[in-house]
Amino acid sequence: MTASRLIAIVGAATVAAGWWSPLESQAVFRADTSAVALYATVRDRDGRLIPDLPREAFEVLDDGVRVPITVFSNAPQPITAVVMADMSGSAWTDLLRIQGSLRHFIQDLRSGDRLRIGTFGQEVSLSHALTDDRATLERVVAEEMWPGGPTPLWRAIDAAVRSLQPEPGRQVVVALTDGVDYSPGGARLPPLPGGLSALRRRAEANPHLLIYAIGLGDPRRRQRLSGNVVSLARVTGGGHINLAPDADLGKVLAEVGEELRRQYVVGFVSRHDDGKVHRVKLEVSVRGATVRTRESYVSPGRPPAGHTQTARGR
Amino acid sequence: MRLPMAVALFLSQITSGPGALEPSRTDWTLVVLVDVSISMHLEPREATAVLAAVHDGLVARLAPQDRARIGAFASEIRLPSPDRARDDPMSILRDSLTGDAEWRYGPSRLWDAVDMASAALAAEPGARFVVVVSDGQAAGNELSRAQVARNLQDRGVSLWVISVIPGIADDQLRAFASANGGRLFKGYLDHHHDLDKTALADALTAVLEALRAGWND
């Protein structure tokens, strides 16, 4: 099975009806809290991306009820992403592989793309800022990756998510990891307050967030992405894949980049204003094609009294 | 000029040993930076001990005309003002180890911290030094190592380093210090990553002696 088949891409976000372009959409998203957008990838039965479909090829079901599509774009989208690399003891042997793959990913950045590179192990570290400057990013790869330590995976993803919150537009976190959170505390990094459940709530409530998890563990030692990591990626509409030790990580990163660039944005007005989680389904009328998108969204509005769910991530 | 034997003997005695009078030497201004990030494996109690050791082993042994500030860094860089450092030399304990600990969880902005320290020293008269106590695992820096080195040279500030974790970044730190007028000293934590007060005290003494050897006029 190819990497692209394994990677599921999804997304949901608030959008407004009317004139729209990918670069300017997020300012509109924040101005209108009654609309929802889905970031979606369409593939044929062989796993190849299908770009350039028209609006008429899609239908949105909001809690099972068909609703009009108010916003649509099939234009290539720039990438705003944080790549978090696991530097824990178990990933020590992967350092050169990770650095080489990141260098390829950096060289492949396109106009409008912005990237930040982070690591987690002894510490959780993020490079200074989102940037499209290749020299700066390559300097980070060369100077600021230190193997060793535990695997504070939830803290790492949380830090990446928080760092992206001020950014307009789609926010992507790509975690390269052996797949299991381990934060022993003591004189080392303590666990994330609230743990996975708190991170999951924040991720679910951030409609612009997509989390990808790329497993670098050795399957011969039963090291795979944990179910919790996979679940977190799914709830945001992101994707996951477990790589073989000799798999080409650079190629997988390139495929993730291509998927993100070719995602559709499909917007609709929510029928709800209760601040609760609702089911959403995006269908495409192309024979043999599959569309992958977030399966739920948090509607605008306040949750009922006693309901603690947050309707908006920002 | 040939000095009388008694005078020569007197001068050799007062310029040797810790805390000795050092007539006619250039005034020194130092910024001592202590890495308090979580990768140092220091509980607050141990980080306090490191800061106290830096004060007792280096700052308190400077000549009266010298000036020094102790700063700390992790994801933030905390450096007291010259006035505050003079009135309360250990103010960094309150500034760095009390309250919210999140800033210590990373990254370790080593190069940015060195640059901030060298900028703070740029306008000072006399000899100027930055002394760093760190594991060298720099991350999250706005400035590159090369840019920080250029700034150190432009400002005429030399860098001295005490490494606390063997092996990980020693080569990089040694090269960086050597290229900027200083040296690397080993004040390693023990194999349980606990603070070895003797090793750190010895390293601080070695820094002080090296400074004296290189900068006495």
Mean pLDDT of chain B: 83
Largest sheet of chain B: 6 strands, mixed
Q: Helix and strand succession of chain A?
A: HHEEEEEHEEHHEHEHEHEEEE
In angstroms, what separates the terminal alpha carbons of chain A?
38 Å
DSSP helix fraction of chain B: 40-55%
Biggest sheet of chain B: strands side by side, in what order?
Answer: 3-2-1-4-5-6
The tally of helices of chain A reads: 8
Q: Give the ordered list of helices and strands of chain B.
A: HEHEEHHHEHEHEH
Radius of gyration of chain B: 17 Å
Mean pLDDT of chain A: 84
What does the model show?
- The complex is a heterodimer of chains A (314) and B (217).
- Chain A has 314 residues and is an alpha/beta fold.
- Chain A is built from eight helices and 14 strands.
- Chain A has helices spanning 3-6, 25-31, 95-107, 134-143, 153-164, 195-205, 227-236, 249-261; strands at residues 35-43, 58-62, 65-67, 71-73, 80-86, 114-120, 124-126, 171-177, 209-215, 240-242, 264-269, 277-284, 290-292, 296-298.
- Chain A has a six-stranded mixed beta sheet, with helices on both faces. In chain A, strands 4-11-1-13 form a four-stranded antiparallel beta sheet, with no helix packed on it.
- In chain A, strand 2 (58-62) and strand 3 (65-67) form a beta hairpin.
- In chain A, helix 3 runs parallel beside helix 8, helix 5 (153-164) packs parallel to helix 6 (195-205) and helix 6 (195-205) packs parallel to helix 7 (227-236).
- Chain B is α/β, with parallel strands linked by helices and 217 residues long.
- Chain B has a six-stranded mixed beta sheet with strand order 3-2-1-4-5-6, sandwiched between helices.
- Chain B starts with a helix and ends with a helix.
- Classes of the chains: A alpha/beta (314), B alpha/beta (217).
- Chains A and B meet through strand 7 of A and loops of B.
